Target: MFS family permease
Amino acid sequence: MQARAGRPGKLLLAAMLAAVAAGPILNYGLSAISDLVITDLGITEAQFGLLATVCFAAGAIGNAAFGRFTDRQPDTRLLVLVFAMAAAALALAAIPGGYVLLLVAAGLSGLAQSFPNGVTNRILAERVPAEKRIGWIGIKQSGVQVSQLVASLAFPALAAWIGWHGANAVGAVVAGLIGVLAVRVVASVPLLPKAPTRIGPLPEGPAPIPAAPPNTTFLIYALAIFGFVNGMGVQATNVYLSLYAVRELDFTLVMGGVAAAAAGAIGVAARVGWGKMMSGGMAAPPLLLLLATLALAGAGVFLAAGATGSAALLWLAVALHGASALGVSVVLMAAVVRSVPASTIGMATGMVTAGQFGGFTVGPLAMGALIGSPGGFALGWGAVAWTYALCVALAGYLVLRRRRKDREAAS
Model:
């Protein structure tokens, strides 16, 4: 399995998608069988949320701390780290060692998510022709939702057959095998030749990727802040979606997993679609405003589903969640690739991803505390709605700022 030298194709894209998908498998798998795990370990909803908090806290620290490390390491070495840590986390979760061991596994899974965005963004910048990059971001970033889709379907089915520890053991083996193939594929694709210094007029026609502004510092911080706020709502929803369906709407464990899988499947399509819009030249701020508005509507529908006991409203909320909040990452990563040189792309990606993971850390823990209170899921969904309302305000500010800059440039 090797990609043709100098002509990166579907195998390279699949390898990047797999790298992005590997780390989150444990978290999504446990969320899909949350009711079983909570009952088996005798823990509270807040303690279950702490698993995701530990996972994403480790990821946030890793993304913030290892940005420069990522810039200095070969692509294949980083991919080995990603898949090895993801497989090790699943292997630890396969051991019936109790809640503390599962916390350790969750932390290792988070560390596995410290490197994929940085290394895959650099692979795009250094091995993939410019005209393909932004479109490919949408596909490779959908790896997270592919992970959600696969884990949400596979873990409940495997848990019913060989128990939830056995489901993690199967995941460890699969992650290791896919990792070997992904490393081989990336190693077979050479770096693009360095562009020569251009002399004379530029060719006519639109550039495949808009030119980066001279100062990207504000953009990177703005993307990180938006990622943090959106991330709180994303993982508060992802971690407790199956539990909500099972406990509040009387879904079976398998159907609760299907609900989470449906969000992942829609998220895959959404990330590819939003990536194509970005590759067509759409700016990030208006797209972030659209996604934040849809996510806010989705939180409202989740709240309405519980109030009315309507399964139809739950499925509508799942669709809105998958199409909006789960699509934000591709917009953030596309903005980074557009704006940052390849030599520092690992550090910039790390900053933005650390912002997202910071939100991922806070969201599940807060949601677990809220649904364990007398306010229950109604209070939890209300908090998620306020989170997305803040995203709308942030995106609106970025849109207005961009328009002001455009007017200043025109005058």
